[in-house]
Design a protein that fits this description.
It is built from 10 helices and 10 strands. The protein has helices at residues 43-51, 73-79, 96-101, 114-120, 122-126, 137-149, 167-182, 195-201, 220-223, 226-233; strands spanning 5-14, 17-27, 32-36, 55-63, 66-67, 81-84, 155-159, 187-191, 204-209, 212-218.
């Protein structure tokens, strides 16, 4: 079985500006990788490059064994790449149910439905008639994840989903993501500033610095060595 996602010597950025420099990364089907690093090192650009939102200067990106470097963003989404943006981008004038159904995509039996999203996030079922702008930050983040799931992805890209959330909402969201990994077998690429939370969630970590990978390996050794983690990330470790 081919890897779910493969980047080979990818250099990418915006226009003529190169942000990522020679990135090689393989993510197996059902695996979870956390992308860590301080602000401005290329974490979001990495997700954007997988989505097709950047200029690819060199290298190749493949999804499920198929080269996708030349595909437009909407075609990559149709292949099964879901995205939860940092800004959430909830439709404020639509209620919870409408936000979910507007993103629904027909699929084979066993795909995601509104009811299945409600089972994953019971809070959304309680707020199903509330408008997007009436939700708390945590509820909006749950809705952003649920909306991405309605596209029936096999790969889910998450850009700082824990940012700004209350501790109780962080726990609920991480619990849901764990269920997605264990029960749905979803492959996840998680960009996160809260390094220790991300390392505890993901068995594998990739750390970026100045657009390059400076660490790609098990999360455990970094959790056990805060000084090494701080030196790699350049901050206090989150």
């Amino acid at each position: 079985m081919p890897d779910c996602l493969t980047l080979r010597d990818v250099s990418a950025g915006y226009g003529e500006t190169v942000v990522l420099d020679g990135i090689s990364l393989a993510l197996e089907q059902g695996g979870t990788v956390s992308i860590l690093g301080r602000n401005g090192v290329g974490k979001t650009t990495l997700l954007a490059s997988v989505l097709g939102h950047t200029t690819l200067h060199a290298g190749e990106i493949a999804f499920a064994g198929r080269p996708i470097s030349g595909l437009r963003a909407f075609r990559r989404a149709r292949l099964g790449i879901g995205y939860v943006p940092q800004e959430r981008e909830i439709f404020p004038s639509l209620d919870v149910a409408e936000n979910l159904t507007v993103a629904a995509r027909r699929s084979r039996q066993g795909g995601w439905t509104v009811e299945r999203v409600y089972a994953l996030f019971p809070r959304l079922a309680e707020r199903r008639h509330s408008m997007g702008n009436q939700l708390s930050g945590g509820e909006q983040q749950m809705l952003a994840v649920g909306r991405a799931l309605m596209l029936n992805p096999s790969l889910l890209l998450l850009d700082e989903p824990l940012e700004g959330l209350a501790p109780v909402m962080v726990d609920r969201l991480l619990d849901a993501l764990l269920r997605l990994r264990s029960e749905a077998g979803l492959t996840m690429l998680l960009v996160e500033q809260h390094a220790r939370l991300a390392l505890a969630f993901s068995p594998r970590a990739v750390i970026l610095d100045r657009g390059r990978i400076v660490y790609d390996g098990a999360s455990g050794p970094l959790l056990d060595d805060p000084q090494r983690l701080a030196s790699l990330i350049g901050v206090g470790g989150g």
